[in-house]
Design goal:
Elements lengths: L3 H26 L1 H26 L14 H86 L3
Helix pairs in contact: 1-3, 2-3
């Protein structure tokens, strides 16, 4: 059987990349989003500089005096982060949905096994009752046979 869900997941993941590019282009043309991208781009740049400075020169304790980058570069960085968030979000949703699907499948399997187990337990109880009844019937028959023999032997023996 073809794993249709997995093929759909790959398709959605592949479509999310061009969709993210399209949304980045459209978003960079929106003035409010541009302002947000400038802020995000500047913060991302500052964080990147901080990490780089700490990694390459951990003893340096003075603050970074690197000037902010231009608004155009900030918009580019912000839209790139936006696109990455979209692609990552789609991938995350696909992983979560695959996990949830697996959990549902496993729960179905477990319910089916529980049903089979209950059916087997019911069958076992039924068989146990049948065996108990048969054993009781056989014991009663033997008991009656013994009583009959005992009664016939006591009648035939002289006192």
């Amino acid at each position: 059987m073809i794993p249709a869900f997995k093929l759909l997941a790959v398709f959605v993941k592949q479509v999310s990349k061009p969709l993210a590019s399209y949304l980045k282009r459209k978003a960079s043309q929106n003035e409010r989003f541009r302002k947000l991208c400038v802020s995000i781009g500047n913060r991302s740049y500052a964080f990147d500089r901080y990490i780089t400075r700490r990694f390459y020169n951990p003893e340096q304790g003075e603050p970074d005096t690197t000037p902010w980058i231009s608004p155009e570069k900030s918009v580019v960085i912000g839209t790139e982060l936006f696109g990455e968030v979209i692609v990552f979000g789609v991938a995350t949703l696909l992983v979560i949905s695959e996990y949830a699907r697996g959990v549902r499948k496993e729960a179905k399997k477990e319910a089916k096994l529980q049903g089979r187990l209950q059916a087997l337990e019911a069958k076992h109880s039924e068989m146990e009752m049948l065996v108990r009844d048969e054993v009781q019937r056989q014991l009663d028959k033997k008991w009656n046979d013994l009583e009959l023999r005992l009664n016939t032997s006591t009648k035939t023996q002289p006192n």
